[in-house]
Fold this protein.
Amino acid sequence: MKYVDEFRNNRVAQRLSEEIKSLARDREMTFMEVCGGHTIAIFKYGLRDFLPPGIHLISGPGCPVCVTPTGFIDRAVALSRRKEVIIATFGDMIRVPGSSSSLREEKAQGADVWVVYSAMDAIPVARDNPDKKVVFLGIGFETTAPTIAATILQADRLRLSNFFVLSTLKTMPNALKALLEGDDMGIQGFICPGHVSTITGLGIYEFIARDYGVPCVISGFEPTDILQTLYMLTRQVGDGVAKVESQYTRTVKREGNPLAQKTMMAVFEPCDMEWRGLGIIPGSGLKIRDEFVRFNALQHFDVEVEPTRQEPGCICGDVMRGAKTPLDCKLFKKTCTPANPAGACMVSEEGTCATYFKYT
Amino acid sequence: MCLAVPMKVIKIDGQDGLVEIGGVRGGVNLQLVENIKVGDYVIVHAGFAIEKLDEEEAQKTIAMFKEMERMASRC
Ligand code: SF4
């Protein structure tokens, strides 16, 4: 495949590995890969074997399904029990356990739950079912938010009165800040998410380098991309500097994608947001602007949501912060498996627990 | 949700595009990207193209990796 195979060359990987080793020597360094897509690539290609023993990689909170709090699932479950409601959602969400149920269980009991690939796919569902109310579950980061904004604008153009979004959309900068404020892992560099950065550009990480002295390198998703990123991070640490760099220059522009940013901000505004494992982080979410409030499921539906109950033993929250790994969890591979997940991190393919399950 | 592999645009009809990767084709919404032409490569996320691949930048990285490979085979 063009523009894929060129970045999967073992000889180049070996060469980068040697460079990293000679730069790092026997120093200890801890880097966090923020994005679940990077976690997958690191395990899939066995990239840890290319690193000297002193370089440690920890996984961060960049899997949208995983950081969705239980209370959000419970609200979606409560909505799905309404006769007039159709839930439209990205596929992974239906398997995430809520406090006492999941959308999959509700579907088996007769709830109308549709899996869609794109938010835009929920529009025809609303149009074709005028006597129903379609609620799309808006999860994701800066990458997904513009696609959901575009969908709300489309619903507005079509004057749909039976389309709603339940938003738990999140934004990265303040979450990374919260991670650094409570950091007991000693993060010395971030492998920054490639596709969030595609939308936002490099600017959102400047404060991390400047105020926290932590290097940030935006990375592509192929094995030599990630190794080159690790080389760049190791070099910054070795040189005692902290700056924002991009390895993924073929996709990420310095200023990001202004059209997508504009679309996103036309519909959403910043708000405080709850993250699984990180709690409520000020200014780390996106809510629908008043102008589009008629599409806001939170305003439109008055539902009773059950009190939140976490699966006893699940340490998903600590896994999301990078403080623990799935191997520290007593349920891992025992009662918690991808077929029968006890926590959100085992559900999504991008989840740290799911990745560990597959590759360790 | 995010396919990290660039897909080639093979047809454009207003805001709707058709993309292809390894013989598999799929629809894509093009409204978040500007100036896309047939033959361009795009990054697709949740059914939307979110950026056009900069082929010149891609070639620069590839050239650098080629150089590394050449150096690797010498030693
Ligand atoms: S293995 Fe399962 S129970 Fe343990 S932290 Fe991961 S998702 Fe939670």
About this structure: Helices of chain B lie at 55-74. The mean pLDDT of chain B is 89. The pocket of iron/sulfur cluster is lined by residues A 314-316, 319, 326, 329, 331-332, 336, 341-343, 345-346, 353 (CB under 6 Å). Chain B is about 25% helix and 45% strand.
